[in-house]
Amino acid sequence: MRHMLSSMITFCALSLAADGLAPFPDWGEPFAITSGPHEHLLASYYGINSWSPDNRYVSVLQTDLNGRLPKVGERCVLGLVDLQDGNRFIPVATTACWNFQEAAMAHWISDSEILFNDSRDGRFVAVILNWKTKEERILPMPVSAVSKDRTWALSVNYARLAIVRPDYGYAGEGQDARSNVEWPVDDGIWKMNLATGETELLLSVADARDKMPPPKRVAGKPGQPLAYFCHTVISKDDRKIFFLARSIDWFDVSTHKTSIWETTAITIDSDGRNLRPCFKEGWSGSHFNWAPDGSHKMLMTVIWNGEKRKPNERFDWSPVEFAVGSEDKARRIGAGVLDWDWHCLYSPDGKFMSAETYWTKNFERPWVLVRLADGMVKPMGAFYVPPGYRHSHWRCDLHARYRPDGRQIAFNSVHEGSRQVYLRDIRPAAACFSRSVE
After folding, report:
1. Is 210 exposed, middle or buried (0-12, 13-18, 19+ CB in 10 A)?
2. Model pTM?
3. Would you call 285 exposed, middle or buried from its count of C-beta atoms within 10 A (0-12, 13-18, 19+)?
4. Tally of domains in the chain
5. Cα distances (angstroms) measured from residue 216 to each of 157, 189, 240, 259, 279
6. Does a structural domain hold residue 289?
7. 3-class secondary structure for 108-156?
């Protein structure tokens, strides 16, 4: 990866490029908004807005835990960083439904209301908290995505995820994991009304069975095959839902290990109809983002053409852009130079892709900015990962997300020795851009 980034030639531009393409914005240096002795992470998954509607507060989690997964009932603090008061940390609640990847899936509902997942009376739920008055409403299911109009949400089975993806699930029996059922007909993606708490099963796991490849059977391993849904994301016009459908051959709860999962990327309408795999079998799918204009375009990392390479060749994954309904016209981004499993993220104006990824052989996480119109790339830095944060289950991905107005970006990092939250300012003036060498 370091060699890949060093193969880029940097150009400087003081004004709009002569060919009329959008100039690269100017990014400031990262600065921390949290600090020790506690550790902190953004309170939701990558791509989800962390700023309050007035841009004054950023939602974060505070914990002293590292080096293992959270145990049943082990709580952390949900708080707000006040950017107008010296980055003062304001604790507003605690939660027992959290992990190091998706945190507590917090979403802002208004300047005074924040939604997050928690465990109450032994059940996984969602809470809408007025953090100023401390009034709260309890919703019957945890959320995995929230509509842009803030009227409905999606939910998946986080107890099942704790078996198949321990770093994304919640410890405990707050939901029925259905661990003995490979293709449940009574579980999958749920839709929940945020005003009433009314829920409906939008799509069962069994409904997608004929669209998913079976897991590769592994002889002599413990457990039972399981299929499951995860990573639900709602399009910006609230009309489409994207998710990953996965299956494994075996699992071992005591060691938190499973077989390698088979993945199918799928979209459906927000009423549960029109189930549509994004690509042919073998393309898989990872780290995706809906276009900000509601056009049903997406960025995603896939196995390009479904062709897995040999161990001594370049990584299988490649970022692409495509439109639902025209998936066969997917456009590869980076012409092979960016072959890696990037966290793909549209800029709010839709002109750029922010992409950060896993550590290289030097234990640094690269970050690049890509101009989508022509694939030009600008390296945005590399962030060191100390040994204590390299285990898969408690790793610290950067998991960037833009402020809605595009003037800042937030991310998690451990490059200064502990897990903390950082911001970078973004200015629209052109400064430098890079062209990848073919």
Report:
1. exposed
2. 0.92
3. buried
4. 1
5. 23, 24, 30, 9, 19
6. no
7. ECCCCEEEEEEEECCEEEEEEEECCCCCEEEECCCCCEECCCCCEEEEC
Which H/E stretch holds residue 410?
strand 408-413
Residue 78 lies in a domain: yes
Is the CB of residue 355 less than 8 Å from the CB of residue 366?
Answer: no
**Alpha carbon distance 234, 348 (integer Å):** 16
Q: If residue 41 lies in a helix (H) or strand (E), which one and from where to where?
A: strand 39-42
Strand partners, 264: 245
Please count the CA atoms within 13 angstroms of the CA of 167 that sit on its side-chain side.
16
Q: pLDDT, tens digit, for every residue of 28-70? A: 999 999 999 999 999 999 999 999 999 999 999 999 999 999 9
Domain assignment present for residue 46? The answer is yes
pLDDT at 213: 84
Cβ atoms 229, 243 nearer than 8 A: yes
Cα–Cα distances (Å) from 46 to 43, 49, 350, 364, in that order, read 10, 8, 17, 19
- Which 8-state DSSP code applies to residue 80? E
- Give domain status of residue 405, yes or no: no
First to last CA, the chain: 16
Look at residue 214 in the predicted model and tell me its pLDDT: 78
DSSP state of 392: G
Task: Give ∠ CA 85-86-87 in degrees, rounded to 5.
Answer: 95
pLDDT of residue 182: 95
| Interatomic CA distance for residues 29 and 292, integer angstroms | 25
Q: Which domain holds residue 82?
A: 33-139
How far is the C-alpha of 418 from the C-alpha of 427, rounded, in Å? Answer: 28
> For residues 331 and 302, what is the distance between their CA atoms, to the nearest angstrom?
11
pLDDT tens column, 233-247: 999 999 999 999 999
